[in-house]
Amino acid sequence: MRHPDQDAHTELDPGSAALELQDDLEGDTVREECGVFGIYGHPDAAAITALGLHALQHRGQEAAGIVSYDGSRFHSERRLGLVGDTFSRREVIDRLPGTMAVGHVRYATTGATILRNVQPLFAELNAGGLAVAHNGNLSNGLTLRRELVRNGAMMQSTSDTEVILHLVARSRRSRFIERYIDALREIEGAYALVSLTNKKLVGARDPRGIRPLVLGELDGCPILTSETCALDIIGARFVRDIEPGEVIVFDENGQDIHKPFPPMAPRPCIFEYIYFSRPDSIVHGRSVYEVRKAFGAQLARESHVPVDVVVPVPDSGVPAAVGYSQHSGVPFELGIIRNHYVGRTFIQPTQAIRESGVRMKHSANRAAIEGKRIILIDDSLVRGTTSKKIVRMMRDAGAKEVHFRLASPPILYPDYYGIDLPDRGGLLAATHSLEEMRELIGADSLAFLSIDGMYRAMGEPGRDPANPKFADHCFTGVYPTHLTDQTQIEPQPRQLSLLAEAS
């Protein structure tokens, strides 16, 4: 979920030095904030949750947390950094006893990565403790927050997830699950929630199913998590996807299912297939790897030019490049080698480092590209800064021609559901023509996957404007839910917290 420390739109200044460095090192791509995991009734609940979070590390690399319950008390460990930085240590897992646990990995959109924003968030309610892990973003979170604060609520974080805790607390229903559903009725946007009480593990998915949530089983114990790859790492069995709008509860009496919302046509996020999910995950019955290969094959159908080799921008462009190569018959080559050990901790934002940022993360494999016409394949293009430097790197390594292909359509609109994208002014495709983008990047040609081609690669005949099958608003501007925070006449607060906290 988003953590709006800076302003109402929770966007960074695209011209800032920090963002330039982030672009250099992390690439021209979209980012999604978090992954969730929960297990009920297993003696090694915390250790299993830690393993699950390892598998979800790609969904968030800035912070991780686990809350467990041992029958009498909740135990919480929330830390900045990677899962392995904290949760690979036996003494940490030993501080998380119990047979129930929920976990979270986080990527912060804006503002400082501070401990009070790290999930799962926990609150002491009248009925007992409640820990919540949230993947997504509430499109009315700021509006609800302002209303709650006006009515006396005291916010301890700048996360929209905290709004959910307050909504549960203020419900006057007698049963916990009724109070939980009351809270869900007030929020809008995208959410996959995994929550823990002293008796229950609860999962919930937004009515459009924008964010993913799956059910698994290990040794007879239910698991709720963002992706099937988190089940695979612990040897768990995939049971099914949690349905859009479904609330599922596990306790000592077994499983209970609630469907409190009117049925709506599902609109899962298309970026789960383009970028977010791990290639070895199965999302809504589709292999992410096979879908990305199909994107590449469709690209070859739509925009192929004579070249000698197909080169992926690692790692995100690899499956699409495989598909492009297989369909076109052009050899696949690793023309760019990625250094997986470049971290943020030792990178200082000096001009010299900014200039060499891409070279530290990506190196040209001269033997594969010198003297050749190449097609570069990447998953998406946001601002163009890294793409420009990679094209220049290919030319410096002796490439005769450099053609750039993107395995998704042009990103034209911002996201309000948990994807870290700038406003339209920071999106290259929203402010430049195709030819202007090609010239800026320095490629011999530039092409994106068409929207209909993207749908065809997904097994659909094309995009049906009357009933789109996916949340594709970043390409089309057609949003699947209300955007209350964006339509308020009253200006939103530009600063959500007065507290500056050391990280």
Automatic annotation (TrEMBL):
* Domain of life per record: Bacteria
Q: Pathway it acts in? A: Purine metabolism; IMP biosynthesis via de novo pathway; N(1)-(5-phospho-D-ribosyl)glycinamide from 5-phospho-alpha-D-ribose 1-diphosphate: step 1/2
Which residues act catalytically here?
34 (nucleophile)
Q: Which GO terms describe its molecular function?
A: amidophosphoribosyltransferase activity; magnesium ion binding
Cofactor binding, per record:
Binds 1 Mg(2+) ion per subunit.
Essential cofactor(s): Mg(2+)
What this protein catalyses is: 5-phospho-beta-D-ribosylamine + L-glutamate + diphosphate = 5-phospho-alpha-D-ribose 1-diphosphate + L-glutamine + H2O
- Its Enzyme Commission number(s) read 2.4.2.14
Q: Where is the Glutamine amidotransferase type-2 domain?
A: 34-253
Enumerate the residues binding Mg(2+).
316, 378-379
The alphabetized list of GO BP terms reads: 'de novo' IMP biosynthetic process; purine nucleobase biosynthetic process
Query: Which keywords does UniProt give here?
Result: Glutamine amidotransferase, Glycosyltransferase, Magnesium, Metal-binding, Purine biosynthesis, Transferase
Q: Which family does it belong to?
A: In the C-terminal section; belongs to the purine/pyrimidine phosphoribosyltransferase family.
Q: What does this protein do?
A: Catalyzes the formation of phosphoribosylamine from phosphoribosylpyrophosphate (PRPP) and glutamine.
Question: Per its record, how is this protein called by name?
Answer: Amidophosphoribosyltransferase
Source organism of the structure: Bradyrhizobium guangzhouense
Origin organism lineage = Bacteria, Pseudomonadati, Pseudomonadota, Alphaproteobacteria, Hyphomicrobiales
